[in-house]
């Protein structure tokens, strides 16, 4: 799972909202629930209306862990815009998003 | 190889172990790695940590039908597959058969940003999924510390790695974790060695420009294990470890005799040869036909239909074959027949331990009845005397345990007193020691051979001169001159003198015989004369006797007639008239 460059996503640049975010969590662990709460808060606060957030429970789809090259959980993968970025943690430390 | 023998019956169940299938490692660990528990393999760069991990998986699949998962943090699956393809491990095919799963975990600090609390559950899920999808029994995590470079939060990582070990134990998979060696510690993070049940340390040492790889088991919870450093080798068949000092001096011995290949030499031994499975050492100065003696032995072994492994540290196989052909020892046919294998290499090509490993491997592959090493002294260019000695000790032990006759040649450099000392001091280890030397006389140099010792059989005490002829080695008969055993030209002189003496003595005897014959004939003639004389005398006597009888008879009958004419009372004067 090499870093996916923006060019892959280029054709669908306008097919959705500006921000495409995937949050991978593991069931209802404290870190995961906190992460879900925090990301929703942050998105609502800063990206209201401009984002699409997909929350994936890796326990349900374990093969995704391999495909997405997940190590730390929770992980937020920002697919759009710009470079793909991975943010690991529960967003309790809000220095950036 | 040597099995662990114990006279005490195991009362308690032993720790279950998972055999690695790696040559030699299972013997050191007495059965393998702890089953269902994590094992750490640590070492510096270039030790073969990853390789050992992969071999553990591949052997597990091939030999024990146990699927495995390889989680690689540093190399990608194609890279790994390409790297081990040279060892004959086809990772791609194993993956296709669903016996192996390779999961490359890409850790890149620049892509990862920490935003708060997290754990490594993603890794657990991946691993869990990989294990469950193929029913893996073995797992290798290749250099877990790569995580430390990707995730700055050490506290989380340490607790998560600790949790990972426990989780793996809970899964019941036998795990190998590899780790880089740190400064003064076994691993850089100083963590893995404490949570692993077994720690194997790989070491790559360069001494005198020669690299030797060594392996040591640092800890093994719940089991005894070999504690020494064992050399290992990365060969074209994978890793091969030698448990070199496991000898207990209780190997079975053979009563069979192996001929030396030189009939006259056999005669010098009480039982016409060496015991099978013993070690024979030939020491001698340069040019004393040590190699020829060794080749003669090798030829003899092959002629008896047994296999012989010859290590040549001085000559190339072709050169050896040609040189031996010139003295009537045809090794070529045995090479062609697959009975003789010549392994020629420069001693400096690798370290002593590697030589030993190579030897072990070849012996195991080829299963020879005899091993010839020509010469062992060249090995000293690789290590110091103590190392060479220890290596040779282990080598001799190994061969003895396997009942293989060992035949070594050794070059001794000094002259005079030093001649009977070998540089390696292995002479106390060998069972039979033959010394060949120059017998330098007036203006010439001859070769002499003597047996210094031969354990378990009587042997000749003579120094025998020998010559190398077109038909091999010939021992000459002992010629004792006025000053002891003579050799070479003086031997010839001595022989000529003896011949002349013998001739003279023969002539003298002949002359005496003729004289005797003559006298006998004279006497016989005399006897015949005397007999004739005796016969004539006898004849005469017989004649006289018969005349006398006739006369008596005539007389008696005359008297009777007279008595008939006269009365008996007057017959008295009759006897007086006989004259």
From TrEMBL, chain A:
Entries under InterPro entries matching the protein: KaiB-like (IPR039022), KaiB_domain (IPR011649), Thioredoxin-like_sf (IPR036249)
UniProt superkingdom: Bacteria
Pfam families per record: KaiB
Domain KaiB stretches: 22-96
A Gene Ontology biological process term: rhythmic process
SUPFAM superfamilies linked: Thioredoxin-like (SSF52833)
Protein name per its UniProtKB record: Circadian clock protein KaiB
The organism of origin for this protein: Hymenobacter lapidarius
Higher taxonomy: Bacteria, Pseudomonadati, Bacteroidota, Cytophagia, Cytophagales
TrEMBL record, chain B:
GO molecular function terms noted in the UniProt entry: ATP binding
Superkingdom in the source lineage: Bacteria
Domain KaiC: start-end pairs: 16-255, 256-489
Span list, region Disordered: 1-23, 546-579
Residue ranges, compositional bias (Low complexity): 563-579
Biased segments, Polar residues type: 551-560
Stated name of the protein: KaiC 1
Species: Hymenobacter lapidarius
